[in-house]
Amino acid sequence: MARFSISIAMFAVLLVGIGSALAAEDCRKEVVARGSARPTEGWAKSLALNNWRQAVQKAYGEDFEDLRYAKDATWACAPTTLGTKRCELKATPCQVPREAVTASAGALTGPALARRLQEELVRVGCYGGSIDGDWGSGSRRAVERFSEKSGVELITDKPTQDALLKVERVKKRVCG
After folding, report:
1. Contacts by residues 128-133 (CB-CB < 8 Å, ≥ 24 positions apart)
2. Is 90 exceeded by the pLDDT of residue 108?
3. For residue 94, what are the β-bridge partners?
4. What is the model's pLDDT at position 68?
5. Which residues, listed in sequence order, are joined to residue 87 by a DSSP beta bridge?
């Protein structure tokens, strides 16, 4: 009976070890990307982020290009001699977890939805404010700009799944 208990305990330890190995992050080498000089820091960050995503996708594929899952992301923004801003992004890309890929956008609500929509609005060049999950006048104006420039009618007084999906579908810069 004692041998049987020890065998079960060893088997449990082995399973936990395998589970931990499978759950470990799959990360790659750090990628550094720089954007061109632009009049606002938000715009400069947007360009750096787009360049980072393109470099990561080219090197490692689409499963790694989401900055939300990257490790050690740091921004460095500096003024140029012409009074514009240039930003650089350094981050270690990690594979997006399968559960995140299969989860629908409908799972996001409240501040999480607002943050995600703000990130996307920065990416398309319509928002230069803080990505903080607060849905204020700057966020509303960003959705208005996106709506005006893209010809897509959206609700602006609160973040919506519809707005997030429509902004995510746009692959290029819309504003500015």
Report:
1. 128/40, 128/41, 128/42, 128/43, 129/42
2. no
3. 27
4. 82
5. 77
Structure tokens given for 119: 């990130």
Supply the pTM of this predicted model. 0.51
Site of tokens 């060049």 = 125
Listed in sequence order, the residues at least 6 apart from 100 whose beta carbon sits closer than 8 Å to its beta carbon are: 66, 69
pLDDT category at 24 given cuts 50, 70, 90 is low
Contacts of 131 (CB under 8 A, 6+ apart): 115, 118, 119, 122
Three-state DSSP state, 34: strand
* Tokens 């005006």, residue located: 148
pLDDT tens for 138-171 read 999 999 999 898 888 888 899 988 889 888 888 8
Which of 16-20, 92-96, 133-137, 152-156 is predicted with the least confidence, judged by mean pLDDT? Answer: 16-20
Dist CA 159 CA 133 (whole Å): 10
Domain boundaries, the chain: 25-103, 104-176
| Interacting residues of 16 by C-beta distance below 8 A, sequence separation 6+ | none
Is residue 150 within 8 A of residue 170, CB to CB? The reply is yes
Cα–Cα distance measured from residue 144 to residue 126, given in angstroms and rounded to the nearest whole number: 9
169 CA to centre of own chain? 14
